[in-house]
Amino acid sequence: MISNQEIVLALGSNQAVDNAGSAEVLSMALAELEARGIAVVRRSQMYATPCFPAGAGPDYVNAAAVVRTDLAPADLLAVLHEVEAGLGRQRIARWAARTVDLDLIAYGQQVLPDRAGYLAWHELPPERQAQEAPAQLILPHPRMHERAFVLVPMRDVAPDWHHPVLGHSVRQMCEALPEAAVKEVRAL
């Protein structure tokens, strides 16, 4: 049975695969998810966004999608990683350029591993964020509220989703971002 929970993915690409540009790579990733039985319910438009962090590679194409599946969050994450690998993603360095990035942003209102674990990663200082990656799945994504390249596309597909820890909707989190950051996310 397919879950009724709103599961949100963020997608990004800043490297071509064969002759496919970044926007096409994201479409290929969504098609591969559907081929694996993950229903794509809604997808955002594609956006051109500055590379994050600055200087880490070419600029990105980003999007968001709401999906439905009966897979548990960790199992869904494993499928996302398989699809990334199939499209040439190599995990060489944190925040490096990539053919495709499929991030599990939210799985309904689940907080993983628990509220304390979420808060530990949410409150991690920026200098440690660049050095450390969690060994387990953290949900919702602990940095989503800071990233226009996640929130602007997510606003297309789940504007009223409420963060289970912060208590704000996607629309509210997007409005709280600096205006300059939001303007950098440009519809293709």
From TrEMBL:
One Gene Ontology term from the biological process aspect of the record: tetrahydrofolate biosynthetic process
An example Gene Ontology molecular-function term: 2-amino-4-hydroxy-6-hydroxymethyldihydropteridine diphosphokinase activity
Domain of life, source organism: Bacteria
EC number: 2.7.6.3
Primary enzyme class: transferase
One family name in Pfam for this protein: HPPK
Signal peptide: none
Keyword field: ATP-binding, Folate biosynthesis, Kinase, Nucleotide-binding, Transferase
Family designation: Belongs to the HPPK family.
Protein name: 2-amino-4-hydroxy-6-hydroxymethyldihydropteridine pyrophosphokinase
Gene: folK
